[in-house]
Every structure is written in C-alpha cells, then in structure tokens.
Amino acid sequence: MTSPKSHSPRPRGDRTFPSRGSYREALRIGELLRKESVGGLLLVALAAVAIVWANSPWAESYFALRDFQVGYAGWHLDLSLGGWAADGLLAIFFFLVGLELKHEFVAGDLRQVRTAIVPIAAAVGGVVVPGLFYLLIVGRDSALRDGWAIPTATDIAFAVAVLALIGSHLPSALRIFLLTLAVVDDLIAITIIAIFYTDAIDWVPLAVAFGAIIVYGVTAQLSRRFFRIHPAAAWMILLPLGAIAWAFMHASGVHATIAGVLLGFTIPVVHRKADRAPEDGPGLAELFEHRFRPLSTGFAVPVFAFFSAGVAVGGMDGLGSALTDPLTIAITAALVAGKPVGILATTWIISKVIRINLDPSLKWIDLVGVGLLAGIGFTVSLLVAELSFAPGSTAYDHAKVAILTASVLAALLATVLLTARNRRYRVISEQEAIDADADGVPDVYQRQGADD
User: Is pLDDT of 6 > 70?
Assistant: First the structure.
C-alpha cells in the first residue's frame, strides 16, 4: 500500500472553516485523541474514587495520603504527594502541551494565518468570556475574585473520553478544531498562571532555570540527527537538563509547570513535505510524543486528578451549601455557558470580519457542541483553584465541587447535542473514508490538495 500522502490543508480559494488538514495530520490527530480518550476514562475513574474515598468513613486516610510530605527541604522540594502531582506530574502534561503547540506552529493548523486565526480567536473568546461571566456573578466579593481564571481551561482528555463513551463520529475537521483550541487554551491558561499566580520571584533560581532551558533547547536543535539515530542518548542528556530546569523554576517561585511548556517548545519538529516519507525514522518530537504521551495520559494526569478531586462535601447539607454558593454558581455558569458562548460568538465575529464561511457539511450547532466539550475544564481548572484559594478553606472546597459539577454538566449537555447530530457525523465520516483509487489516501484529501 502506498504510504499516506500529505497535502496542503485547504486550497487558497477555499474560504471555509474548520480546516480538515492533511491526511497525515488527520491520522496523527486521530491517534493522539485515541490515546487521550483512554487517559480521560482513567482520569474520570480515579477522580470518582477520590471523591468517594474523601466522603467515606475512611476519609482521614485519603487526606493523610494526599498531604504526606516527601522531598529534600534544602532544595524547596519537601512537597506533599498532592503537591508533587500538581507541580511535578503536571509538568509532563504541559511539556506535551508545549510540544503540541510547537507542532501546530511548524506543521499544523497554526502554521498558516488563514487556518490559525479561527481556532486562536475561538480559544481567546473561550478564555475571556468565561472570566467575565465569573467576575459578573461574584461581583465585588474580593475574597472570590482571585478565582476568575478557574473557568478558562479545557480538559482535552476528559472531552475526548466523552466522545469515546458516546461513540461519536465527530468529523476530523471538528476534532482538529477542538484539539487546536484546547492547546491554545492551555497555553493561555499557563501564561495566566505565570503572570497572575506568582506571588514572589527569586531571580537567581529563575535565571538558572532559563539557562538550563536554553541549553536544553540548543542541545536538542544541534543534536537532533544524532538523537534520532541514538534515541537513548536523548534521555541521558536531555532528561537531566529538563529536571534541572524544572527544579530551579520551582525554587524561583514561578509555577514549575511553566518549565514543562517551555521545554516542550524547544524540541525540533519536522514538517513533512507532501508525498515524502521520513528518511531517518521518527524525529525527536515524534520520539518524545510516543514516549511521554502514555506517561501523561495514563499516569500523570489521572494521579493529579486523584489527589485534587477529593473534597469532603459534608453530606447532603454540605453539598447543598456548596451548590448554592455564589462561587459555585459563578464557576458552573462560566464553564457551562461562558465557554460555548465565548467560542461561538468569537468564531462567528471573526468569520464575518475575514469573510470566511462555515464548512457547508456542518452547522453552527456543531460548534456549540465543541464549545460544550471545551466547558469541561477539570484538570487545569483544578490546578488554578488550588492556586486561587487557601487549602482547606470553604472557597477551596466549593471551587472543586463547582469544577466537578460543571464538568459533568457540560459533558452531559455535549452528549445530548452530539448524539442528536451523530447520524450526520457518520455520513461525513463515511464520505471522508472513500478511497476509490485504492491508493491509501481518501479521495477527499486528494481533491483538497489538487486545487492548490
């Protein structure tokens, strides 16, 4: 069978969105989302275990495990297990965010302005509008205003787990749009954490951290051919450099996950040309993606969810108090309503400004479904909640209840809408799979590239 050919995402005269991308990119995204769906199911399962355990007669053992401290105090690494999960394991997740963002800029939808502008605008709208929803609802309560960034994030693993559970045939263009939106969304969220949730900075460790990141990036760039031939060398050289960068970033007072994003962004990404197969095997970015993705989706993020989702609600009275708290209402409304409104409104406005039309095979209601999936904040929302409120405070607990409630509600609403549209999605998927000339590349991607 002929190796899959890569084509330009859209012909120049085609003024439609979202972009289907090249066949190579569609295959890559499909495989990535399949891995994320498995991790998402594990994430949901461990979060459920944490909630049940934290509200069981054995709740003390859960909190004792979460708060158990380990690490060397002299290096500012005497953290609880929950702290290690938030600062350490999530750095792996954000390393992959940086890696995916780099891939999007070099070889994906963000490489060209005409395909990048819509998902970037949608991501910005999906951050700004939920933040405004939150601030409008909490009003002048200064104790709650610090949580404005909680509803700005999208949990792609949880979102695709929903798609896997309902058996959705979401078209490749919408899947790519959702992933691109989520990656940009996470970049904005981590930038917010760096700017607004850093109390004090120790400049010497920060300088060392940036120095280590620069050395890491230069080494990765200059040695990429060597690492491709000798992959074990990449782990022996780059992994210690990455660990040093993470440790000094943590010691500086800036959230350590920032190091993960920056390290991921330094990894070289190869843009495969049309009809050209890799000559020297997988690149360094592909190697790291292959190795780190299972670690992130199968361990790092689920373990973080396990330690972060456990909150004692105090029975039905406590749950009732949490659900009627203005904080809970603000977070829930911002994620469930603010996210889809921000994404849909921004997308509609930008489409009118640049005169680009929605793909005729889709309807605007499909973007509402994507917006609802984006309202599943969960992982990064839990991280921001931990940075916004003092551990053990009422606001801290209620924020977590709100995130869990909003994520489940957004998932249920997305399920109803996408299930109703699934028959149409199945038709689109069948059309995208037609390969009349049996050359291994569906015809729709060849027709798409032929017009370039």
Answer: no
